[in-house]
Amino acid sequence: MKLRLEEEQVETYAIQMLERYRGNFCDLRTVYGIPRGGIPVAYELVRACHKYNIVSDITYDPSQATIIVDDIIDSGNTMTKYKSRYPEKQFDALIPDKTMLRLQKTDWVIFPWERFDEALNGPTENVKRLLQHIGEDTERNGLLETPERFVKYFEEITEGYRESPYEHLKLFEDDPNSYDQMVIVKDIPFYSLCEHHLAPFFGTATIGYIPGQKIIGLSKLARIVDTFAKRLQVQER
């Protein structure tokens, strides 16, 4: 899921960030924004400080900052890198946790400053850069539409992230005494991608269960396998 934030929301979150330092506003004296997304956040935070007559200014040198800010803490890798390099500095983000927006880990937040260059810096542009990285001419006829095709293809083969296996768990009432043996569906074909190299692999799956008071349609088991297969996997798992 993609969530587009409005400018008013950004302003509200900047004020919330300011409030987190109530009683210790000296931490906001000099703000460094991590390129790229942290730079507009730094300006929003400084503007919020000035609105409440709190002394704050921008610095372009993280070593001179009292606080380092980013747009969102996602994987945490950026925060870890900066905190290890500047352990004495405060580190914060406009969105410190996706759960505050009721988002899942895999959901995508689009900030106002990203909206205008989304076409220039979106996934299709990244595919084009990868093709250029290997030495291809992305302006030749055969590759003009390849980035768009690849993004569409990649979204299709990873649509398991955008659906829940519980959607396929359609159960039916059954007499618990009518059957006490294992029900097995074998040789369910699947196609997936290895999470280490994004290399495709395929195989078959076997699912078995012992019915209780409810049973599941056999075709639903294959759909559950398909949902998980359309997510990155480890072949050996």
Detail the topology: elements first, then pairings.
Elements (H helix, E strand, L loop, with lengths): L1 E3 L2 H13 L10 E4 L4 H14 L5 E2 L8 E6 L4 H9 L4 E6 L12 E3 L1 H4 L2 H4 L1 H11 L12 H12 L13 E3 L9 E12 L5 E10 L4 E3 L1 H12 L2 E2 L4
Parallel strand pairs: 1-6, 2-3, 2-4, 4-5, 8-11
Antiparallel strand pairs: 7-10, 8-9
Question: How is this structure best described in words?
Answer:
The protein is an alpha/beta fold and 237 residues long. It is 33% helix and 23% strand. The chain contains eight helices and eleven strands. A hairpin with a 5-residue loop joins strand 8 (183-194) and strand 9 (200-209). Helix 1 (7-19) crosses helix 2 and helix 6 crosses helix 7 (146-157).
Describe the structure concisely.
This protein is of the alpha/beta class and 237 residues long.
Sum up the overall morphology in one term.
extended
SSE class? alpha/beta
Let me know the average pLDDT: 89
CA distance, first residue to last residue: 27 Å
Q: Radius of gyration over alpha carbons?
A: 25 Å
For the report, how would you describe the main beta sheet?
A: 4 strands, parallel
Instruction: Estimate percent helicity.
Output: 25-40%
Number of helices: 8
Element-level helix/strand string: EHEHEEHEEHHHHEEEEHE
Major sheet: order of its strands?
A: 3-2-4-5
Low-confidence runs: none
Estimate the strand proportion: 15-25%
Number of strands: 11
